[in-house]
Amino acid sequence: MSTNRLANDLNEVLERADGALHSLVNSHVLVTGGTGYVGTWFVEALLWARTHLDGTGRITVVSRNPTAFLDRNPHLVDNDALHFVTSDIRSLDLAGIPTPEFVMHAATDASAALNSNNPDEMFSVIVEGQNRLFGELARFPRPRVLFTSSGAVYGPQPPDVSHFTEDYPIPASEQGKGSAYHEGKRAAEQICLDATSAGTAEVVLARVFALVGPHLPLDIHFALGNFIRDAMQGGPIVMKGDGTTVRSYQYATDMTVWLLTMLVNGTPGRAYNVGSEQAMNMREIAASVAAVAGSGVACEVLGTPTPGQAIDRYVPSVARAVSELNLSNVVEFRDAIRRTIDWHCT
Q1: Is the predicted pLDDT of residue 177 greater than 60, yes or no?
Q2: Are 183 and 74 in contact (CB under 8 A)?
């Protein structure tokens, strides 16, 4: 079996999420979307904990392409705790699998291209997939479910709102190009709340914001991933916008600790933001990437700010997760960049 390049990070997760992982390692955990960025980290952490805590549990992953996942993660081949159901989430059939005590539902392709070019498909994957999953979960006695929703449910962030709280009013509808992802997540959250009210499942909502870490794609619409790619290639780091867009980024180990804790200890029917409160504009973000990469990497801004134009901002408040679940972010932003670069270079 090949070496796990995430060993140091996974040991960190094991130490910080020890309580939640002790509740999971002897259980059957069903993971949908387990081969995406969030799901991969979740599966890695569960399998690592099972080994190091002498657990006896099972992890069942729903994926359209398990072979591709194992090709990317050869150290997981032949792991006797890992099982796959090969299926699109919309045609999922869980007949015959053991009863899952816990479910991590992360089966959404966060693809800007799909959202823009085929919005009906994007909406279908989220909403029809959600209905199918809960229909299948009705086979089992009231499992605990964590649904990875998105900060996108809040819609555009107004200029007078520095950080979205979970109590911010969710728009009833948002029409227009690129809105299918937002609308789908809102509808999916309601399905979760309905299932919780009906007593068929205990569903916790995790509204995930921007992330960084190993497994982050460097060649799609994620700005920070593009910046890291540019820096690894020697630069320049190219900002297609005007550099004023504001984001915050949570490192993968922090994210994983938070999601594990929410699955086990979150209040059913309650939403929690998952992310970082450290707001930075794209110029600052690019400068941090350049500083970590070193060797004189330059930054280039292609756009020009428009006077009077509202700044595009996407930053959560995480006060609820901190106060109710005793969570915190411990990986500083530049260290998150360094760890991500190091992983891609090994």
Answers
A1: no
A2: no
